[in-house]
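SAMPLE LOG
Freezer: B-3
Tube label: C17
Construct: single chain, 561 aa
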Amino acid sequence: MGWIDKLNTRVARTPFGKWFRLEGSGAPSERAGSKFSVELRAGLTTFIAMAYIISTNALILTDSGGPCDCDREKFGATCETDPAYATCLQEVKLDLITATCAISCLACVLMGALANLPIALAPGMGLNAYFAYTVVGFHGTGKVTYQNAVAAVCIEGIIFFVLSVIGLRQWFARLIPLCLKTATAAGIGIYLAFIGLQSSAGIGLITGSPATLVELGGCPPEFRDKNNLCTSHHMQGGPTWLGIMGLMVIGTLLLYRLKGAILIGIVLVAIISWPRPTSVTYFPYTEAGNGAFDYFKKVVAFHPIKHTLSSYHWDLSSGEIWIALITFLYVDILDCTGTMFSMAKFAGYMDDNTQDFEGSSMAFLVDSASIAIGSAFGSSPVTAFIESGAGIAEGGKTGITTMITGLMFFISLFFAPIFASFPPWATGPALITVGSMMMRNVISINWNYVGDGLPAFITIIMIPFGYSIGYGLIAGIGSFIFINSAVWILHKVSGGRICPPNFNERDNWVEFVTRGGFKSNIPPWIMRLFGKQPVSLAPHHDVGSENELKEIAIENSKSIH
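STRUCTURE (predicted):
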């Protein structure tokens, strides 16, 4: 037994190990194959896959102008010619880097410690763009002020918290048909891969096209137009080929079950990209490159929040603010719910009976509380991140993974120049790899019955093509209701004579919703309040039979040792 095995055994036998149900801890329902050393590596992998959020979220939210303002009659609608406004924006950007690290740290630690799930939280990328460019508008040119917008985010978090406390958010999640939950995981896999193929958060292999929407890219930065489209020299960009090399390295290492394969690939590509005089450098000799390199050289830097902390303005008289609030609510509840259920399924925590996952009530409570707290830092809504799949793929099974991710965000408060300098072509290969792993969920979809298969397929394709998990679920749910309602009406009106030939092969949605009983989604504290025994949510792993579980555990054990 090596020193790592001894460390894992000793940690598992402590109260800490028992709390997180590590293998060998003696806790009820131990997480099979969970080891402390693997959790550390998985948490670091998740963080590195998410590190781009530190600078990207700050850049997007800074475009809203934050609480900064100027004389717009004198300097124009966007205030871009006002030197004082420009100075304020620079300080707001640093404020938002600190805010992103702080709320991500807090949310991840709470999720790991209380829900014991390897699902990381941070400000959502889609919602921050909606917040900055639609609600507040570029440099405050929208109909809602920044202060009003963060107040709306706070209200959203409070509403979600109440829904989670009484169990309605979990009940709503259970109403989503099984085929759509399964399809969501596969759709997120394609979505992850699509992000990993683009230039904003990936290797730049796929770019936009005015004729075909997307096309093969891979051109050097100097051959891109103002819209980031390749004008020539396709597939001649060094960063793209370096990203492809990183993907091949990760794939090869995974094939041999090498520990930390995804993490090794990310770090290797990042280190190659940091030296300046190369064709693959992340710091080219341009104005933006020089600024990024100057920030990178600081290594250690901490900036206290000056402008965005608790910058609320509780004026809810505008109709626009209510439209924004409703949009935040429905997009976030579908986006976060879809992500959490997909990550839980990917990790093998789905309960066969209730189609819920262990720790869901606390996970939703942590998510909603984080939204409200994040608004106090000046951030857009916090949500579950699909990049959590990178840590799960590395073997993360408990909340320790998420707590390590949170710890890394805390360290980033002081080492943000380093962690904000991982190039997108270093993390892109990891996203593509995780996407391929999540695609295995499609085999669990009931393709034999069109009433299940077609809505599932619509969900799968609309998540990446609509660039939103929420929109994909809306399309899937809408098509499922229309098709199956028509079948049900014809079946009832005809007395059962008109029905599809393979009607008996459908997933019985009504049985699926009711067989676990509504009580299984009521939080235990409410059950105890009324003198009832809480319903136990046994950890049924939705990954196959007992023999398959044993085979997976053996394979994971081999890869760990």
